[in-house]
TrEMBL record:
This is Haloacid dehalogenase. It comes from Trichoderma harzianum. Keywords: Hydrolase. The keyword Hydrolase applies. SUPFAM superfamilies: HAD-like. Coiled coil: none annotated. One of its GO terms (molecular function) is hydrolase activity.
Length: 259
């Protein structure tokens, strides 16, 4: 098998939330008002803080995916409002419509990982940077103003424009078609870079993309980081804990070419 060559690609396509944005921290912080409504004798308080966080994030992920399949053309912020209502119902806590809408509208407040902005600025010296995200345009715009301030994408493809949510193959076909139209970049020139094995790495492998990069971020808490369980379904050329680690490897690889 040929070694993985970071310099052989012309574009990097990115999952954003979980890869560049620390959505688990952002989501959990938005659940804190809900936890504040829990009675002192609620069974969730028997869990450790770590287990409580994992429980809420898992419930979030389950409801999110079900709703994305059920409502593929719904705006992401609206879906998240429904997710909040469903999670609240699971634990028996009533919430208002205003509270649910506030949850759905806070996507742009989720923080970036500490290494993200500097890493993206370095990667932009060597590749076209393309966002492929399961959100709506307003939410992504807010993220650009906040957590991703200082990051310059060459193209942004979001679910609101595509009409479906990842892992639907349609989203990745849209990426291929538009990268070709917008930049003259072929599928074989794209390295998909993502944390989620389920929503990103499995579909790109099934569609015949060249080896991708897994940004593991410690595996995450939403059931998206168990590589051993899906190793026969993915095609990963390299794994990095952080995007910053990838940027270091990219600079070293291109430096060898110059020398």
């Amino acid at each position: 098998m040929a070694s993985f060559d970071l310099t052989s690609y012309k574009a990097l396509s990115f999952d954003i939330y979980a890869t560049l944005i620390d959505w688990e921290s952002g989501i959990f912080s938005q659940f804190l008002p809900l936890l504040g409504k829990l009675p002192k004798d609620h069974p969730l308080w028997d869990k450790s803080l770590t287990d409580l966080r994992a429980y809420l994030l898992t419930q979030y992920s389950i409801h999110e995916h079900k709703l994305e399949v059920q409502y593929p053309d719904e705006k992401y912020s609206v879906l998240l409002s429904k997710v909040y209502e469903n999670v609240a119902a699971d634990i028996g806590i009533p919430v208002t419509r205003e509270e649910a809408e506030a949850f759905g509208g806070a996507i742009g407040q989720w923080p970036a990982f500490a290494d993200t902005v500097a890493a993206m600025q370095k990667l932009g010296k060597y590749y076209k940077l393309i966002a492929l995200s399961n959100v709506d345009k307003v939410s992504f715009g807010n993220t650009l103003k906040n957590g991703l301030s200082g990051v310059q994408f060459d193209a942004i493809y979001v679910a609101e424009d595509i009409g479906t949510y990842k892992p639907n193959p349609n989203n990745f076909n849209y990426l291929v078609e538009h990268a070709r139209q917008d930049f003259g970049i072929e599928k074989s020139d794209i390295c998909h870079t993502a944390q989620s094995l389920t929503f990103d790495h499995i579909p790109v492998a099934s569609l015949g993309f060249r080896p991708a990069v897994w940004i593991s971020r410690g595996g995450g808490s939403m059931g998206m980081g168990d590589l051993e369980a899906v190793k026969d379904k993915v095609n990963i050329g390299a794994t990095y804990e952080t995007l910053g680690d990838m940027a270091v490897a990219v600079e070293a690889a291109f430096s060898k070419i110059k020398n």
